[in-house]
Design goal:
The complex is a heterodimer of chains A (104) and B (357). Chain A is an all-alpha fold. Chain A has 5 helices and no strands. By secondary structure, chain B is mostly helical. Classes of the chains: A mainly alpha (104), B mainly alpha (357).
Chain lengths: 104, 357
């Protein structure tokens, strides 16, 4: 059973790694941010699985902290990360696609 | 013996290296910011796999909450200052890259050689180190009975080497004073309460998450005495909740301009020092707690530390220095994009926000 928990954790971690490709490629800040958020959510799952698989109850506290704080960065992003777009783009559609671009 | 833990560790290690490389290599500041957040979460998993749940907890609380928000804040300010220029110009990385291109092959080879030697040396140390320190755990275990707490980490942090922790809180207070002395205008501004009704989801979310985070912070402070937890983890978590409240506009930012903020910021330092002086008179040694009173004193100090750490971390997030006034990027500011919801005119005066005082 331990193997099962750790195995699923590995699988989840690989899906996170796949999501991180989107962080690197973007193109828009929202794409990157959402991919990072995926890590927060999946991280809770990974930690809970490892808590069982490694027989370490303290990891549930770490998962709890992950879950509680995952939202902080999103709110900070929505409230503060969108500066660029408000400066030179008028329409909502343009805001999503052109902001903060960078190398593709 | 299954190979799965090895695969897990391998993936975590590869992710760490890959993320670290990419976040230093990229020219896109926002990408680097997000990658840094992901790096913190991966690092937390690495601590888990190394059996250091305390560190995993601290890394998760700091990395997911305060640090990420702090970096987004910094990005926002940099992006605003670089308005009208390209990413590469505004980040200032182009110049550095040009120099790298001019490096001669011999110099590059020498550089790689030096770094290779350092990496090789570190690898050699890692391989030859004993798996477990032969003396320290034995000493801690032997002294744990008299420590007042059963969690060896808390015993080391707040009893055996309490002066270390005392100096750490001094560092945090110094950081707060440093940020506060740079502050040129971020006084007490909160968003107009009438605007808050426009964001029902944000409101409901904050009402749900913040009390839970506060409860968990109390739990972590309390549980630190006998299990994984402690003041730093709890303080970082509470600070995350505070950052959420401030960023969402539900709390007047706790700037160091307010005497109350300053009092809470230095609370732990005062309590810790007083406890140290009391034990100096009692036992003759600074921070050598009187026998029998260890648990109560440690809990007192832990509680004060949690409050002060939370306040200082939120303060670092909020009390950012004002942007230099001669920056042309200041001519147009997005009201909702400003950390404190202000609009600043080119001559540095507040267009909106100041009259709400």
């Amino acid at each position: 059973m331990t193997d099962f928990f750790v195995g699923v954790a590995v699988l989840l971690l690989i899906t996170v790694a796949a999501g991180l490709i989107r962080v690197a490629r973007g193109p828009s800040p929202a794409d990157r941010m959402v991919a990072a958020q995926l890590f927060g959510t999946t991280g809770v799952g990974i930690l809970l699985l490892l808590s069982e698989g490694m027989d370490e109850p303290a990891l549930r506290d770490v998962a709890l902290v992950f879950a509680l704080l995952a939202v902080v960065v999103s709110v900070a992003f929505v409230k503060r990360g969108w500066v660029r777009m408000g400066l030179d783009e008028e329409s909502e559609a343009d805001r999503d696609s052109t902001a903060g671009g960078g190398p593709r | 013996m299954s190979a799965l833990p090895w695969i897990l560790d391998g993936v975590v290690a590869l992710l760490l290296i890959g993320l670290a490389y990419r976040l230093l290599d990229t020219r896109d500041l926002f990408e680097a910011t997000v990658l840094y957040i992901a790096f913190g979460l991966t690092l937390s998993l690495a601590w888990v796999r190394l059996g250091a749940a305390d560190l995993a907890l601290a890394e998760a609380a700091l990395g997911a909450g305060v640090t990420g928000a702090l970096f987004l804040n910094a990005y926002q300010r940099l992006a605003r200052r670089g308005e009208g220029r390209t990413d590469e110009e505004s980040s200032g990385l182009t110049v550095v890259d040009d120099r790298v291109d001019e490096v001669s092959p011999a110099a590059a080879l020498a550089s790689y050689g030096v770094w290779g030697l350092i990496a090789g040396g570190l690898a050699w140390v890692l391989v030859t180190l004993p798996a477990r320190d032969p003396i320290l755990p034995v000493l801690v275990d032997a002294a744990l009975e008299d420590a007042g707490v059963s969690n060896p980490i808390t015993a080391v942090l707040l009893n055996f080497r309490a002066y270390d922790t005392l100096l750490e809180i001094v560092v945090l207070v110094a950081a707060m004073v440093g940020v506060w002395s740079l502050d040129r205008g971020s006084r007490e501004f909160a968003r107009n309460p009438a605007d808050l009704g426009d964001e029902p989801i944000l409101g409901a979310l904050s009402r749900l998450v913040v009390p839970l985070a506060g409860l968990t912070a109390v739990y972590l402070t309390w549980t630190g005495a006998y299990a994984t937890g402690g003041a730093f983890q709890a303080g970082a978590l509470a600070a995350g909740a505070g950052v959420l409240l401030v960023a969402a506009g539900f709390m007047r930012p706790v700037t160091s301009a307010a005497p109350f903020t300053r009092a809470l910021g230095v609370l732990a330092l005062v309590v810790f020092t007083v406890v140290g002086l009391v034990s100096l008179f009692w036992t003759g040694l600074f921070l050598d707690y009187p026998p029998g009173a260890e648990y109560g004193l440690i809990l007192l100090v832990e509680g004060a530390l949690t409050v002060s750490i939370a306040v200082i971390l939120v303060e670092l997030f909020v009390d950012v220095p004002a942007i230099p006034e001669d920056d042309p990027g200041l001519r147009v500011l997005d009201p909702t994009g400003d950390p404190l919801g202000r609009v600043i005119s080119p001559d540095g005066a507040f267009i909106r926000g100041a009259e709400e005082e």
